[in-house]
Design a protein that fits this description.
The structure is a single chain. The protein is an alpha+beta fold. The chain contains 4 helices and 19 strands. Among the domains are: about 90 residues, Immunoglobulin-like (Sandwich); about 110 residues, Immunoglobulin-like (Sandwich). A 5-stranded antiparallel sheet has the order 2-3-19-15-16, covered by helices on one side. The termini are far apart.
Length: about 300
């Protein structure tokens, strides 16, 4: 009888205490891993890309289901493949976020081995709403734990959509060799800015650095700098008084090797809604940078100012 009571007490203990603890632990893990699925910005249509009637691109081919190549591509996480939507083209965007933070993409940070301390890299908006800007602060420490410098800067893009990456550059007068540890702080700056992101950038040409001939023609711009030529389409319903192009180059290792901006070409005084324009060429004369750009992937952002 005593043994029977002990068995009943033991079973009650298991059901009342041990099982709930296990379930609670599993639930917490699920919450930690759970991410919010985002609806990404609209992808431009072929007609919007080239300023032509959409009917020109229609065919009579009807597919019952996507080709295998498309199915396989869709299995790759968004941040591992190239995205192309309004105002942005490149990798490192994501449609899976925690919904409560902005982050530094540590693997993209490019820090020189010598010279003044400087970083180029990407941040990402992992909130569920648009943010005006992302501010990054780097606290630099020496080998004894003493603070050498605090440097901060905002992302180069305004109105960063949920899941979108954006470039950031920080610089210090401290020698890189003296910096032994970096403490990072990232925060949101505002929730919106008076800018428009509904535009697309088309790369007309990326002329490699140091190449004396290009596409059968001898170059007339020694020492043959790297030159990026781009065009813009304003796909919003607003006229833009000005616009800015932001470009980041990412090397095969995933590091940001350069960040540049460009205004509209001098011949353009704004861009009307639905209109096109040309950005000023980005020209890189520095051989240490230019040669890296030859082997790098191009990411582009556009910001319009109504």
């Amino acid at each position: 009888m005593v043994k029977g009571k002990r068995r009943i007490i033991f079973l009650l203990f298991v059901f009342l205490f041990i099982i709930p603890v296990v379930i609670t632990a599993e639930s917490i893990d699920e919450i930690k891993l759970n991410k919010i699925k985002l609806k990404m910005p609209k992808e431009p249509t072929p007609g919007e890309l080239y300023g032509m009637d959409e009917s020109f691109f229609k065919t009579n081919v009807v597919l019952n289901e996507p080709p295998e190549s498309v199915k396989e591509a869709d299995k790759i996480p968004l941040e591992k493949r190239k995205s192309f939507f309004m105002g942005f083209e490149g990798r490192f965007a994501t449609d899976q976020v925690k919904g409560d933070e902005v982050i530094i993409l540590q693997d993209t940070l490019n820090i020189p081995d010598s010279g003044k301390w400087k970083i180029k890299g990407l941040v990402r908006n992992e909130m569920t709403f648009l943010v005006k800007n992302i501010k990054v602060e780097a606290v630099l420490y020496d080998e004894n734990g003493k603070i050498l410098d605090k440097v901060n800067g905002n992302s180069k893009i305004k109105n960063i959509r949920p899941g979108e990456a954006a470039p950031v550059v920080l610089e210090s007068d401290i020698e890189t060799s003296k910096v032994k540890r970096v403490e990072w702080n990232v925060k949101v700056v505002g929730t919106s800015a008076e800018v428009d992101r509904d535009g697309i950038v088309l790369i007309a040409d990326a002329i490699p650095f140091g190449v004396p001939e290009y596409k059968g023609f001898k170059r007339q711009d020694p020492p043959n700098p790297y030159t990026l030529i781009t065009t813009l389409r304003n796909l919003s319903k607003k006229d833009w008084r000005s616009a800015e192009l932001v470009v980041a180059w990412v090397n095969p290792e995933g590091k940001v090797v350069e960040v540049q901006t460009a205004p509209l070409a001098e011949d353009y005084n704004g861009v009307v809604a639905g209109g096109s324009a040309v950005f000023q060429d980005i020209i890189i004369h520095d051989p240490t940078v230019g040669l890296q750009l030859n082997e790098s992937e191009i990411m582009t952002w556009v910001v319009g100012y109504p």
